[in-house]
């Protein structure tokens, strides 16, 4: 029998472990099972090369709870350890000093960096025991430690090859004696381990997930079934990308484009990171480009250690290469679908557009590729344009005096329908920009696309959408124009209203409400972000009421001698225009409805009198 002290340069190892690992104390089970997987894989390798000639037997890992004894056991049938190996791998822990360690690694998760995977067991245990028998022809051994630097090590009887680790769970950690708690940890960390893991006589893992196979071996149904395995309540994904690269880094995985019907359904942190099929984290924002955080799926890379800190990911060159590779792979896949199956691509654009726009805003390399397959839907007809196609279609009609393409868009095709129709009648092409990211996308693309400016279709009267017209002749004289300006000089809540009298065509609406592009855009941005946009959010709405002096209704109103009726008619004309901009709400909307009824009733009474 051997007794001694665990060889570290400090006696504070166990307080350090408990203090610094306790926030993630369920990781102990992942670490111990990962060790068991390694031991199992080693014995398979040794058998395959002839160094182990015995029977492999049933290679599995068992997790066993004994509530009466307050123990949790992890049992494998792997290579096992000799007495010398236990002394080497368990009894020697390399620390320079506790003080240096705390200073250098105070922000890092220390398991994995220092061979401390096994010692994580002491986070939840008063005592840890090891029963192990090597595949070599040597006696089995027993090791135990109660959380102090002292240990015991001696030979015992054990028939089966492999290792059994027994944790005597402490009072503070008795949750780990509950079956549901252990099952939850196993499902989180071990669901795709390459060695069968059994708990309560049931195998809890899929040892051959699809990312370990070649794409040629898989069917569409295989990919869809695996998605259901990852996200049981998710809708069938749009499509997927199978990642498989072994140089200059190792990476496998499958990324899915989920179906997103509404912008508010966007969910991040749905990509799981694995290392050799062991779950690491679902916070992958330093590995996957930010805009692809909207994707779902799995990435597996043995080049990324099991336990990684944020600073590690940010500084590791492999991580940067993986990030670049994934961006290129996604861009190539989207371009391939666009070129080969454009109609299908267009059908899925409602969901795809969010990924593409987000990527174009945040990643210039992706933007360069995406310019070829980014599309915009026409607001009037079922038709999509790439930027080049839109430019060609509007070459003759939508260039302003500075030679820039004026890209007309709508954020609400239903509410802005009258503006869209007016633009279409002029031969203009209006496209839909109605998602959560479009306000930011428009601002960003104006800086990144050459000679392109965006203008919402209701930002001005139709005659001024491309270039402001210098002269607009009205049939009214100066006094009549001044009277109209006075009539429409309204105050609607906090909305700042400017009145302009112009001579539009006789069949144009009597009043058109428009919102200046810059201020309206800033207020739109305020709805999705902070910064300067929040400043503009506090400012009142700005609206221009363009009164069409050539509309016949004003010839009648200028002759009206009933000032009360005149005021109501003028106010109703203004409210109709404001209603088209969604600016008539609450009390103002109620007043408009009541006033409209009054005017209709008055007209009906007049007709009755005339008929009499």
TrEMBL record:
The regions listed as transmembrane in this protein's record are none
Q: Where does ATP bind?
A: 31, 35, 76, 81, 163, 310
What name does UniProt use for this protein?
Chaperone protein HtpG
Q: PROSITE patterns of this UniProt entry?
A: HSP90 (PS00298)
Any one GO MF term held by the record is: ATP-dependent protein folding chaperone
Q: Which Gene3D superfamilies match?
A: 3.30.230.80, 3.40.50.11260, Heat shock protein 90, C-terminal domain (1.20.120.790), Histidine kinase-like ATPase, C-terminal domain (3.30.565.10)
Which UniProt keywords are present, listed alphabetically? ATP-binding, Chaperone, Cytoplasm, Nucleotide-binding, Stress response
Which family does the record assign?
Answer: Belongs to the heat shock protein 90 family.
Cited InterPro entries = HATPase_C_sf, Heat_shock_protein_90_CS, HSP90_C, Hsp90_fam, Hsp90_N, Ribosomal_Su5_D2-typ_SF
Tell me what organism the protein belongs to: Parafilimonas terrae
PANTHER family from the xrefs?
HEAT SHOCK PROTEIN 90 FAMILY MEMBER (PTHR11528)
Pfam families attached here? Answer: HATPase_c_3, HSP90
């Amino acid at each position: 029998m051997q007794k001694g002290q665990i060889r570290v340069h400090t006696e504070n190892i166990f307080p350090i472990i408990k203090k610094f690992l306790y926030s993630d104390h369920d990781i102990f089970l992942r670490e111990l099972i990962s060790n068991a997987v390694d031991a199992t894989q080693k014995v398979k390798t040794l058998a395959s090369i002839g160094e182990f000639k015995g029977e492999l037997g049933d290679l599995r890992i068992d997790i066993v709870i004994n509530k009466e004894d307050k123990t949790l056991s992890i049992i494998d049938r792997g290579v096992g350890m000799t007495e010398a190996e236990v002394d080497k791998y368990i009894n020697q822990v390399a620390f320079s000093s506790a003080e240096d360690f705390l200073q250098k690694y105070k922000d890092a998760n220390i398991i994995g960096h220092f061979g401390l995977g096994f010692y994580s067991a002491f986070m939840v245990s008063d005592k840890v025991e090891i029963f192990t028998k090597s595949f070599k022809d040597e006696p089995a051994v027993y090791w135990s430690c109660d959380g102090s630097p002292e240990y015991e090590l001696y030979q015992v009887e054990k028939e089966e090859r492999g290792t059994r680790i027994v944790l005597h769970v402490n009072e503070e950690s008795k949750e780990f004696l509950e079956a549901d708690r252990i099952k939850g940890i196993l499902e989180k960390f071990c669901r795709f381990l390459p060695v069968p893991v059994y708990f309560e006589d049931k195998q809890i893992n899929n040892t051959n997930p699809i990312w370990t196979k070649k794409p040629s071996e898989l069917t569409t149904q295989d990919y869809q079934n695996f998605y259901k395995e990852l996200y049981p309540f998710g809708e069938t994904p749009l499509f997927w990308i199978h990642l498989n690269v072994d140089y200059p880094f190792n990476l496998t995985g499958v990324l899915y484009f989920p179906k997103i019907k509404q912008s508010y359904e966007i969910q991040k942190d749905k990509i799981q990171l694995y290392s050799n099929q062991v779950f690491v984290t679902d916070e992958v924002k330093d590995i996957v480009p930010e805009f692809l955080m909207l994707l779902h799926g799995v990435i597996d890379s043995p080049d990324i250690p099991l336990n990684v800190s944020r600073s590690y990911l940010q500084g590791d060159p492999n991580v940067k290469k993986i990030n670049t590779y994934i961006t290129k792979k996604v861009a190539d896949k989207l371009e391939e679908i666009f070129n080969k199956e454009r109609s299908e691509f267009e059908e899925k654009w409602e969901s795809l557009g969010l990924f593409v726009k987000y990527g174009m805003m945040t990643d210039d390399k992706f933007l360069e590729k995406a310019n070829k397959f980014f599309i915009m839907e026409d607001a009037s007809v079922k038709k999509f344009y790439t930027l080049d196609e839109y430019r060609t279609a509007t070459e003759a009609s939508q260039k302003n005096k500075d030679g820039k393409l004026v890209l007309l868009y709508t954020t609400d095709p239903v509410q802005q329908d009258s503006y869209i129709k007016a633009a279409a009648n002029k031969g203009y092409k209006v496209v839909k920009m109605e998602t959560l990211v479009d306000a930011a996308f428009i601002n960003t693309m104006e800086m990144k696309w050459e000679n392109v400016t965006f203008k919402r279709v209701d930002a001005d009267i139709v005659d001024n959408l491309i270039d402001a017209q210098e002269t607009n002749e009205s049939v009214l004289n100066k006094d009549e124009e001044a009277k109209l300006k006075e009539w429409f000089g309204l105050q609607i809540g906090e909305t700042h209203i400017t009145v302009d009298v112009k001579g539009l065509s006789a069949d144009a609406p009597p009043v058109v409400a428009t919102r200046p592009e810059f201020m309206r855009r800033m207020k739109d941005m305020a709805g999705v972000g902070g910064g300067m946009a929040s400043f503009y959010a506090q400012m009142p709405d700005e609206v221009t009421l363009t009164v069409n002096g050539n509309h016949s209704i004003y010839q009648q109103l200028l002759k009206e001698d009933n000032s009360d009726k005149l005021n109501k008619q003028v106010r109703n004309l203004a409210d109709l225009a404001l209603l088209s901009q969604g600016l008539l709400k609450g009390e103002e909307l109620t007043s408009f409805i009541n006033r409209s009824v009054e005017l209709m009733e008055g007209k009906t009474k007049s007709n009755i009198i005339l008929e009499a």
